[in-house]
UniProtKB/TrEMBL annotation:
<dbReference type="InterPro" id="IPR050194">
    <property type="entry name" value="Glycosyltransferase_grp1"/>
</dbReference>
<protein>
    <submittedName>
        <fullName>Glycosyltransferase</fullName>
        <ecNumber>2.4.-.-</ecNumber>
    </submittedName>
</protein>
<keyword id="KW-0328">Glycosyltransferase</keyword>
<dbReference type="GO" id="GO:0016757">
    <property type="term" value="F:glycosyltransferase activity"/>
</dbReference>
<feature type="domain" description="Glycosyl transferase family 1">
    <location>
        <begin position="140"/>
        <end position="258"/>
    </location>
</feature>
<dbReference type="Pfam" id="PF00534">
    <property type="entry name" value="Glycos_transf_1"/>
</dbReference>
<dbReference type="InterPro" id="IPR001296">
    <property type="entry name" value="Glyco_trans_1"/>
</dbReference>
<keyword id="KW-0808">Transferase</keyword>
Length: 339
């Protein structure tokens, strides 16, 4: 197949450190090429993949980016996989899926979500779970004694609840995360986290690359204390890929992601604390790693997207409005080229 992948203009593909969407685009692009498909990638400057052809956005203007995509998309493309949103909203005359990595995909005919939970809430479209390349995640059997929290410093991520678990169990807790330049995150951290920091509960700021992998692979357990409607929870499978168990609350899609490891799900702080103390709920490092390989590898994700591509193309239910944004701009571009 000839497949267009449309990434965002926020980070290159692959991202240097954090960047869930761009990493998904990278894994999918690499695996599609491995299987002999032709991939045309639109992405931020500095992207480096094995795509058949890569087009780097010429500016930060979404209007310019869309015009650039329209101008450089071949007419014989089989499907467009839009991770950005700007293409799907323009209603191109090519089957186009809008891959939402959050909770909505407004303005798209064929939305694809990262979990069944979020798909069901939207009552439309499909879902394909995230996948990661196992070789990118170091596997370690021997763990150190600390607990780990990785995530944004926001109330919905439950950082304060991870602190409470550490206090109840007497375990060391390392908190790693970012404020995203959000004053609400800063206020939350200063009021609910900072007063509890000491020799055993430490905040180390944002992490990525080797530092993140070292923390994930050596932790005795990762605490995923999110209480908001999680679309997926990438840290869950990243930790498990390193052979590290994750204790998590039953919020959003978390029970779906951990469906095969229900012993890791917790109803409240007290239950999570008991499981941390006993350690009896933890699957072995090998079982954690194999779980990700079976359900959440880049290969499994690619298998599922290829099935979806074929289904969308075969259904032929993709409707193009006569005055779609794509067609209007394409007509202007063609007119300028023919002058």
């Amino acid at each position: 197949m000839k497949i267009v992948q449309v990434s965002t203009n926020s980070l290159p593909v692959p991202p240097i450190d954090y960047g869930g969407t761009q990493r998904d685009v990278y894994y999918l692009t690499e695996e599609l090429v491995n299987r002999g498909h032709e991939v045309i990638l639109f992405a931020k400057k500095g992207s480096n993949t094995r795509a058949t052809k890569t087009f780097e956005y010429p500016s930060d203007s979404k209007e310019d980016q869309l015009a650039f995509i329209i101008k450089n998309t071949p007419s014989d493309v089989d499907i467009i996989h839009d991770h950005y949103g700007i293409v799907a909203k323009s209603n191109p005359p090519i089957p186009t899926i809008r891959n939402s990595h959050s909770k909505s995909a407004a303005g798209s005919q064929i939305p694809v979500f990262v979990s069944k939970k979020i798909r069901d809430i939207n009552k439309k479209g499909y879902y394909v779970h995230n996948g990661i390349r196992l070789s990118d995640y170091p596997y370690k059997k021997k763990k150190k004694g600390y607990l780990l929290f990785i995530g944004r410093m926001m109330s919905g991520k439950g950082v304060h609840l991870a602190v409470e678990v550490a206090q109840k169990t007497g375990k060391e807790l390392i908190i790693a995360g970012t404020f995203n330049n959000n004053p609400n995150y800063v206020a939350y951290f200063n009021e609910q986290i900072k007063p509890h920091l000491n020799d055993k509960i430490r905040f180390i700021g944002p992490v990525g690359g080797e530092q993140k992998m070292k923390l994930l692979s050596e932790a005795s357990c990762v605490l995923f204390t999110s209480t908001w409607n999680e679309p997926f929870g990438l840290v869950l499978i990243e930790a498990l890929a390193c052979g590290t168990p994750v204790l998590a609350f039953k919020a959003g899609a978390i029970p779906e992601v951990l469906h095969g490891l229900p012993q890791l799900l917790c109803n409240n702080v007290n239950e999570m604390s008991r499981k941390v103390k006993s350690g009896k709920s933890y699957p072995s490092p090998k079982a954690c790693r194999l779980y990700v390989k079976k359900y959440y590898s880049d290969k499994v994700m690619t298998d599922n997207f290829l099935k979806l591509y074929k289904k969308v193309i075969k259904k032929k239910k993709y409707k193009v409005t006569k005055n779609s944004t794509w067609n209007k701009r394409k007509a202007i571009i063609d007119k300028e080229l023919n002058r």
